[in-house]
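Input:
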Amino acid sequence: MNQSGISSVRPSGRARDAMRKVTLEPGWAGHAEGSCLVRFGGTHVLCAASVIERVPPFLRNSGRGWVTAEYGMLPRSTHSRTDREAARGKQSGRTQEIQRLIGRSLRAVTDLEGFGERQITVDCDVLRADGGTRTAAITGGWVALHQAFGWLIGKGEIDETPLIGQVAAVSCGIYEGETVLDLDYAEDSACQADANFVLSGDGGLIEVQATAEDRPFAQSQFDELLALAKHGITGLCAQQRAAVG
Amino acid sequence: MNQSGISSVRPSGRARDAMRKVTLEPGWAGHAEGSCLVRFGGTHVLCAASVIERVPPFLRNSGRGWVTAEYGMLPRSTHSRTDREAARGKQSGRTQEIQRLIGRSLRAVTDLEGFGERQITVDCDVLRADGGTRTAAITGGWVALHQAFGWLIGKGEIDETPLIGQVAAVSCGIYEGETVLDLDYAEDSACQADANFVLSGDGGLIEVQATAEDRPFAQSQFDELLALAKHGITGLCAQQRAAVG
Amino acid sequence: MNQSGISSVRPSGRARDAMRKVTLEPGWAGHAEGSCLVRFGGTHVLCAASVIERVPPFLRNSGRGWVTAEYGMLPRSTHSRTDREAARGKQSGRTQEIQRLIGRSLRAVTDLEGFGERQITVDCDVLRADGGTRTAAITGGWVALHQAFGWLIGKGEIDETPLIGQVAAVSCGIYEGETVLDLDYAEDSACQADANFVLSGDGGLIEVQATAEDRPFAQSQFDELLALAKHGITGLCAQQRAAVG
Amino acid sequence: MNQSGISSVRPSGRARDAMRKVTLEPGWAGHAEGSCLVRFGGTHVLCAASVIERVPPFLRNSGRGWVTAEYGMLPRSTHSRTDREAARGKQSGRTQEIQRLIGRSLRAVTDLEGFGERQITVDCDVLRADGGTRTAAITGGWVALHQAFGWLIGKGEIDETPLIGQVAAVSCGIYEGETVLDLDYAEDSACQADANFVLSGDGGLIEVQATAEDRPFAQSQFDELLALAKHGITGLCAQQRAAVG
Amino acid sequence: MNQSGISSVRPSGRARDAMRKVTLEPGWAGHAEGSCLVRFGGTHVLCAASVIERVPPFLRNSGRGWVTAEYGMLPRSTHSRTDREAARGKQSGRTQEIQRLIGRSLRAVTDLEGFGERQITVDCDVLRADGGTRTAAITGGWVALHQAFGWLIGKGEIDETPLIGQVAAVSCGIYEGETVLDLDYAEDSACQADANFVLSGDGGLIEVQATAEDRPFAQSQFDELLALAKHGITGLCAQQRAAVG
Amino acid sequence: MNQSGISSVRPSGRARDAMRKVTLEPGWAGHAEGSCLVRFGGTHVLCAASVIERVPPFLRNSGRGWVTAEYGMLPRSTHSRTDREAARGKQSGRTQEIQRLIGRSLRAVTDLEGFGERQITVDCDVLRADGGTRTAAITGGWVALHQAFGWLIGKGEIDETPLIGQVAAVSCGIYEGETVLDLDYAEDSACQADANFVLSGDGGLIEVQATAEDRPFAQSQFDELLALAKHGITGLCAQQRAAVG
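Output:
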């Protein structure tokens, strides 16, 4: 796998194993106990973690906490305006899939017995969308969650972070027949397959979602996508560590 | 009216006729035809104007256009987390009141016959809330709308802007017995009366909404509130002109 | 201001400072603890106050009560039939604005600590609509509320009325360039500006909502509208006192 | 069957075959093409028929019209306040059953080919409830419908009424072991069985709904209920003819 | 009444007093405490009774139990596909009518004080529809309910069944001018009147719902329909006893 | 990989590469153009394909067709009763995820240009659930879809099937540390990871969804899961071919 040449096919000219420019700005939201503005190129997602002093009914009197996520897009975060879900009166199936994915991913690296009967809700709101909003949300959501646990430590509520590892995510896909890392919108809307990988900081698999957009693809291609994802997520995890200092 | 002393009662220490620091950043949203990030102190609202090539049913074949607005708050824009309206499945009465107000205010300075059968939807999403979100939204919304009409001119779709004037808004209130300009959250949540004034660039009244929070107030107090509003809006209009340059 | 000439412009021929014929019939609803059928000319609103022995969650164990309102229109109260909100599955933004306004207005003259942990819900249902339904509802709602408190006194639950004053309301507007009192439907649907004033019995301001329907209007016009409203509300308050006699 | 003695069991003291006082006031609603305020004792229902110049999709281009009904109760029409269906966001199963029943009953005496592609919507809103609201609604709804067809005749849109007969309704039940006519609320809430009969002017059966509230009842009892209903409906039909006379 | 000739009018060729082939298969649902797959010819309904260890709020601390029903149709149980109610976001008026009817019918033969504070929910889901789904559901629902009570006896929770009798149901109608038993879809969609009869095992009336589809019908016809129903239900009750035997 | 030993860990005693007993019964639904009752052991799903002579708005006048799916569970298909989605008024996020997955999977093997502007809706309703409902639905849905296209061929509407291949699906997981094929409910509710694989008849990947339920898992484990899936799906495809004959 040639991991550094210039791609002749990617609209952005990126090499096939090149991420877009990624930035993570912790504390961006003024009021939240933890927050992070994450940018994957032109995709900007505001992640805000709120500490709530109660748990869902199924956890009452269990001594355990919960981490959950909600996801939304500003109506004009997209290239053309999307209807506001609050005005339509319900969240789309896509929205629900994504927020369930984010919540599961964050819980996979959290010790739910380590912060009492509290819920952390991580709101991931897309301010600008250019592909990969769910993977950016997971990557930035971990930073917001880390900060929220730090806030609990600072208040003396808990002694150490319940985070037992890192989690980050990236999308990969088959575009113009070539496996590429970190799809932007131009690629995402015209690819043959796309896959979202959620990995732990030490390379373990947390979630894999791969979809053939057109025709079935081969296992060898899947293996290439996973290798690209590991490469990208290694870099994301380094940036997360830098962000939470 | 003493317009420059330091207030002994305002939590912020502002003079009673002093606005918070206001900034207007046009073009903040990447994809919208017009946009503005408006800040009134700690209140940040992203206004995005989308040009849509169709009108509501009641205007079809009328040759006229429409301007409307939608309003939302990110769940953690507030001091403690607010439920997401999309998840609750409906917009609150407060949200509906505000978006109707923004739409009426913008239409009051627009020639609806001047841009064909198009709708401009101005989405006003609160990223951070510290009082006065609806007045910030109107003030920034005008900038976004101006930019969207500029986009139509640039495309050759229309020859001149259908805007026939400026519109800006500010809240005033009676706090600790004193009439003050531009309430922040600390004042808004403890005032005796609050009022939202929407004025045109030449000082005409477009909307007035005054509410006694506790007991009725006097007409002389109302007159003071209106004078404060005119003072504040004069400054906001100057900033709008600078922003659209 | 000439307050008694015959108007040459009003469709009804009323003088510009003339109310429509107003009647207040307490006790019209058979089962409610307090009620009033209020008529402003062709606008008929049935106000029914129900005493409910519990308060909303935010007031539990506070020792305080609550007054709230709901508003609705019979589908054929209007000139042409309006869809039934229960069938559409939600209340319109207009309905929510109006019922919030009625509730705030009634609370402004009520001592919420004076009747225990009870809620009074004032249902205002429009049987026939000809403009000014919300102002009629506030005016009649006060009578219904007064009667409900009388019912509590009669039962020995409280010693004296928690009402600390009267509240009544009227709309004014600019029609054919002239400021006029108590808009009917013909005027309301064609005016340049309309305003709803909610005043206390001693002339204090409780709510002001003024809207330019077309272009901005001047402060001097606003002052005329307010003067007309004070004139009209003085008469309404006298009728309220007669009704609760 | 003794049809005239004084009942020793009925709370109202009525004879077992005695209706409550019934009145029919056509034209009560100001704006509707047809209307009737119907009273069965303490049950008051406002029926308003609206002529709408379009039909439901399944009848387009069929040359046929449609008659339908909607039903609602004012929240405080009842002894204790009932939640407003518009606020709850949906109509109850009971409401839907009733409005479907009213619509079917009225269509059973209407020639749907006799008034073009129009829909008549008969809104039946309960202003005060004391048992038997659905039967009062059918009885008064026929008067409103008759008046609406008269309005179409008056406008020259149709030559003769599409009504091919009368329809009226009454409830009967088994109370304290005795079959009785026209249940009021006190009886309805404590009866062993109740039945709603919808009959045509010439005694034909249009709808029968009989329900054992407690234990099954005998066919002989059912026959008594039907006989009582025929007796009561004969009188209602005479009152309808007088009302539209 | 000739009860055994071959009908010259029925599409199926059945005699006018002939039921379709009826089968009752208890225990069809794998997990439910009681269940029955009931077939009335081409109408197949799966009835599943679930024992739930709590009651609705109005029965808490009453010592009484509750029996209720829910009804649904698979989207393609019908001749052409019907929209899925879960996707449309609400149950139709027809669905609500039917499930209320099933619940009332089952409660009429149940001693609600005989099984503690439990709720039995009987889900009746139509797998295939060919007319008479609600009457099949009641007939099969009783078997499922019987089995659920047997399960409670088997667990030692109750000593004897709270069922105080049987309940079964059948539809009858006037088709081509002739009164017939157990309408199938071809008859149901073209009949002059249809009626649903719910009777107890000893012939008592529990529910009667008769509707003129076209024009009013005569009492003598109603009497024929009831006689047919008694005939059919006698057979259904025998099959129920065999099924739970 | 030992593919035939008896598992010492699986609750069912199955070998780790053993499927449950699978049956496919085409034509089970009486009215649908195509249908299949599919059983994966105790999981029974009724798949019904309906041919609808119109397409969604985004395909009108495109000459292309559409294949979509809806998914539901009977309330008592589950071990304990689940709320009916139609009664709750909305489909869960899980339901939406599953029906989107089924639709995408079926479209991946269909030539959407091969059957005109028609929509095939494949309803997948779970009659009994014991793990793996979505994979059973895809496997049976393909048979129903095949039959529906056969129906169109039989009517002469199309000449050949638009299916360009087979699609089947199975779940795999890590249970008690061991990778196993075709999870049943006992395994699914206690596994360390579960994965759903949707493969084409020639072994291409169509959808992969893998989730760590507890802690991240290794790529080598993922590879084992995929190998198990290929093994299972080879058998499923053979059964599909037998079923469609």
